[in-house]
């Protein structure tokens, strides 16, 4: 009854928000207001209700040839981030402080762009600079020795602090909070960089340094300080959508400029969708209990159903993809068992037989051990269920693509098993190519896409060619997984990770290998950002899947902690926040 009443109220609130998004249309006189509304709607997790309205508004902004952001870095950076989030190939010159031209192909001299961003450099000898001079361009490099520009408080005085800063304080200009929001918007925008955009890399390092400084000095009012703190912990582009929604609701309601209608809609929508997730989780639990799988296989296999549901929920949280989450969670649990089988517990001769059975695909499994027969039957049953669903929806061709992806997955598993059995430590790039596939992301991509109306044959042909956005997403998963869990995996007897392979090939320490791999992770994000803009013929809904995978990995492993193998202490808390506790309305 409560959910039913909520749904009635949501219908009314949606129409009010829709009117806000469309009336009046974006113009130079209301550009920041419109961008801020769109940003709030997206970060509060209700953007899926207003896809057309948001697309129309951003398209109008993108086409505003005469629009100039002037000195308003907040407007420029926010507009840049929102446009790139939707796949527009806008120039980074505008984001870092140029005139804010949104058109595709805008180019600018790098030194000019550096001089634009340098308006945010600090000057330890110019504390009394007037606010009107804070954003004046006076140098062409960030933090150049002797630089005479500044913005807001400088970290000076009492000794070392975070990120190499030192504690101190200065008098704040009255409208300093607005300038902090400009820095924060630039910080968030910099995570959408692609290769060749060193200006955004510079912006990231600069804004991160100074935002940390402001927190150390405790110079910001509570809601703004909380927003800065949480952004530094997890920027919006690296956060799972539902976590961002939860985080931002708690911040947004404290902001003076928050919109009560938007806030109420976000809270009600979260609770309604949460009730749907609860039903999905109950359905999965009943399936797993009825399957009685645990009594049919050795006890050392991991039960990861909740964690697999977290993956699915984090990647595609939209209510209309409920069946996709259920089926993908089942596949995830099945392949968690298969992964354990190939990684640790299966004998090499048995694994060769299981691989042959998958390659033949004819059901001849009499020669397999009993527990492998159980696993094989589970996989076949899930593929049958997927085939029935996709055929019913008019996409019977999907299942053949998925089966080939499953075979590819198994081939990667057996390659790793042979390496381990032979005591072979591959070269770093050889290992990276094979184990990128064994992350399951290639296979899960085929399965996830199959459940979407946008899954045409053309989309699958594109997937078969291994587009860079898919390769980078899988590589990102492999590298994070290996940094966070390679010691755990070595203890339980797994093949050498990318960390060990790099250490052996190049004769470096673990820490040095980590540094190299973290750089590759950053590169993968740049490839994904580029792919999201480049693949204009592929529906954005499909491209977002790969970004969703990467965000889940960043949340699970981004603090160098293995949130999958140690799920009791991390994933459990996350799932409770999403599935158990409704938001007070």
Automatic annotation (TrEMBL):
GO biological process terms, semicolon-separated: diterpenoid biosynthetic process; hydrocarbon biosynthetic process
Segments forming domain Terpene synthase N-terminal: 5-92, 178-232
Cofactor(s) required for function per UniProt: Mg(2+)
Molecular-function annotations in GO: magnesium ion binding; terpene synthase activity
Domain Terpene synthase metal-binding: 290-526
Coiled coil: none
Keywords: Lyase, Magnesium, Metal-binding
Gene3D superfamilies: Farnesyl Diphosphate Synthase, Terpene synthase, N-terminal domain
PANTHER family: OS04G0344100 PROTEIN-RELATED (PTHR31225), TERPENE SYNTHASE 3-RELATED (PTHR31225:SF113)
Protein name as it appears in the record: Uncharacterized protein
Source organism per UniProt: Turnera subulata
